[in-house]
Amino acid sequence: MQPKKMKRHLLLLFIMLGLAACGTHKRAARLTFPTPIDTRDRPISLQEKKTRKLPSGIEADNQFDGARLNDFFFDDSSRTLHALILPENEPINQSPWYAFRLRASRDTSILLQLDYGETRHRYWPKISYNGDFWQALDSARFSWGEDSTFANLQLDLDTSWLWVAGQAVENSTKVAEWCSRMNIHPAVRWETFGESRLKRPLYVMHISEGSELKHKPILLIFSRQHPPEVSGFRCMKYFIERILEDDPMAHAFRQKFHIIVFPLINPDGVDLGHWRHNAGGIDLNRDWAVYRQPETRQVADYCARQARKWKAPVLSGVDFHSTQEDIYYNRDESAPPSALPGFNHAWIEAIHERFPQDIGQEDNSPLDKPISAGWFLLQFGAEGLTFELGDEDSTEYLKEKGRIAAEEYMRLLLSRYAR
Ligand SMILES: [Zn+2]
Known about the structure:
This protein is α+β, with helices and mostly antiparallel strands.
């Protein structure tokens, strides 16, 4: 964008902010971004949920939350088994999510082809024998086509189910189990504050120590706007678990700040096995301007109500995602200043210092589209960051990065924000 044009857009943004500041703050302020996105509903296709049994005795099943399998058949001409994997609607980005389970009437080895239509392969296959513990499929058993529109898996089947998925299946039940475990901690209050388009609960977790929430600075944590982005979600869990540990810094942090966590913003998309969108067929992370989708509307209003209720500033917003490799999407210099200028950059530097294995680079992107990182800034003046983890980051890496990121977040906020 040309500098002149950018200046004009920024001026418009400031005007919008001014208008919002005059409002009652009962609801989140509507915002204007230089590149508006149409987030009105678009139709989605539902996959047929059933067990497909072939004459050979091989069965494939998608009857669990988070599953994605549109068809399963044996192609006589190529003598290959095919799993057809289609998106909820189009256009959509190249993130074909698949999750299903297989079994056979007797021990057998199969070659299974994942067909993505026109879309390119993204997720390295993970397998599980119980749906809980997952491991990457051995590289000797996996290959993909030259144009990446299909992938071949060699699998050994028997009479027990073998789960196969692009990532560990972390559906709404699993998220609720994690929230419930965290809720045992005295500093945590976990509750349902709304519901998705298809009436699934929207969860929020409050973390705070001490009695008074009034004037206590708020920090917002988002996750799972995009269903398959499980490595981002898992890193967010390690991040939160570190904040809940029993040590002087974590205690001081919980006493000083009110952390509000939205662990599953798109429960319908996750349970329907969507590649990216919600049940309204929309990328929720393009709807942080006028909130046409019920999930963004309710999360945005809830955050605004909390800030108003407690007369508290919102200082920071971190939204966990996944992509091909780790990256930190920060705002560029043309963005209006936040309540904590330069905080994200200092935080990223501190993570790199402590964890040199971190391959994530900082990317200063313009504030042009209605995504959450820009919304944190324009809605509240908070530092906003999209915290992207790599799709194939190992558990050990995610754990260490999540813990170190939490430690540096706590340390920097405690030292920088003394009131
Ligand atoms: Zn994402």
